[in-house]
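Forwarding the complex inputs:
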Amino acid sequence: DAGVIQSPRHEVTEMGQEVTLRCKPISGHNSLFWYRQTMMRGLELLIYFNNNVPIDDSGMPEDRFSAKMPNASFSTLKIQPSEPRDSAVYFCASSFSGDLGNEQFFGPGTRLTVL
Amino acid sequence: QQQVKQSPQSLIVQKGGISIINCAYENTAFDYFPWYQQFPGKGPALLIAIRPDVSEKKEGRFTISFNKSAKQFSLHIMDSQPGDSATYFCAASSYGNNRLAFGKGNQVVVIP
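Prediction (whole assembly, two chains):
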């Protein structure tokens, strides 16, 4: 079975450019999470959706970041304009909210480098 | 504010030894405590999880010990192997809340 799919796996861009990260959650899952991982700050939750609706975006760093989930099988995280401090690994995860276990399944991540 | 705190930050263990990672939490509403394992270049993956109705859960060489009164739980890796070298995250959530509060992670290195 396919797990969470993220694209691209690596992205190198210049400061000021727009960056769009994509995620396809596991079929049947109804919750989707975007995380950012850095050495300094660890794993940070940026935003999460339940049934395609954003529930908590308090982790989104600033207005340069936006996320959408137009349907149950696709989500995007956009950074515009990008800055060097946005360099990190961005993970998408999905889960089924009906599970008592709340297990989240993570994608392989997108490594973003902003020059 | 970090809701879940891990210690130590990193750990070096000899092959065959026991790795122990500790985690402390603040929110008494938490009722689900998983440990995630992350290898370099991969996303975290669930390793083992516990609920507060038991004090210990064992799966193979991995054991979670839970102390509700101290608001602490720990991961024990018995007979540590080089393949266990990874970053380990503890996390916590409360019933009905999809959001997991993650610790900052512990890097475990098992040397042959």
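The interface with chain B takes residues 4, 31, 33, 41-43, 45, 48, 50, 55-56, 91, 93, 95, 97, 100-109 of chain A (CB under 8 Å).
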